[in-house]
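FAQ

Q: What does a record look like?
A: Structure on top, sequence underneath. For example:
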């Protein structure tokens, strides 16, 4: 009989969720072990986050290369609609609940596992991921370079906010805004792309009064601003 790799206790520990092991360490008062497990849980989630990030970017790249920009636009809209519309539907609709909606939005961004910078002024809330945990890190990691590069959308169009050579992953932001405008008349959040994608930080902007959203955020994606 071959020698066993693991004891029964080791197997039982591997079966357990990392969050349960973290809770046990906290309840036992073992701060050193809790910190170690917390970092392990972060690494586990970041690995899964990047796996799905790369998977969807590779898939969108193949759609664009094989079938062209219009098919990519169609697929982008339907793919984003599947997850963005339920989020929009779950948010409270009254103006008084806007602070709660912004907290929900920030909580969602924390799923990218990067620090946030949040600034408020009289007309808006501006959120930046520092760095962007998805599209920005793809650029920083060189995923749009070399023989296995992901797709950059060559022609300026609504999907690229009128920019040329736009990273395909980042085009989902256009889809979020367009779906929201079609569903609710205005976007909850608009994106101001960084001057240098992957180097500077994009701004995710929530206007306190939707009527004050500048016209450019509608026209750049081929839509009219409601009267």
């Amino acid at each position: 009989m071959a020698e066993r790799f693991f004891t029964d206790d080791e197997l039982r520990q591997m079966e357990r969720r990392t969050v349960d092991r973290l809770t046990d360490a906290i309840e036992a008062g073992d701060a050193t072990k809790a910190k170690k497990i917390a970092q392990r849980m972060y690494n586990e989630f970041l690995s899964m986050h990047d796996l799905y990030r790369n998977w969807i970017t590779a898939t969108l790249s193949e759609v664009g290369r094989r079938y062209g920009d219009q098919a990519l636009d169609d697929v982008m809209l339907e793919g984003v609609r599947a997850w963005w519309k339920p989020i929009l539907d779950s948010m409270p609709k009254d103006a008084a609940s806007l602070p709660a909606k912004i907290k929900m939005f920030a909580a969602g961004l924390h799923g990218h596992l990067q620090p946030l910078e949040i600034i408020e002024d009289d007309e808006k809330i501006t959120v930046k991921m520092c760095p962007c945990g998805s599209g920005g890190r793809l650029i920083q990691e060189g995923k749009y370079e070399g023989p296995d590069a992901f797709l950059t959308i060559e022609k300026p169009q609504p999907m690229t906010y009128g920019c040329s050579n736009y990273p395909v992953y980042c085009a989902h932001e256009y889809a979020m805004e367009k779906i929201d405008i079609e569903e609710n008349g205005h976007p909850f959040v608009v994106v101001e792309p960084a001057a240098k994608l992957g180097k500077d930080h994009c701004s995710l902007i929530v206007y306190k009064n939707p009527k004050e959203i500048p016209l450019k955020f509608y026209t750049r994606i081929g839509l009219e601003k409601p009267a």
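Q: Is there anything notable about this one?
A: DSSP finds eight helices and six strands in the chain.
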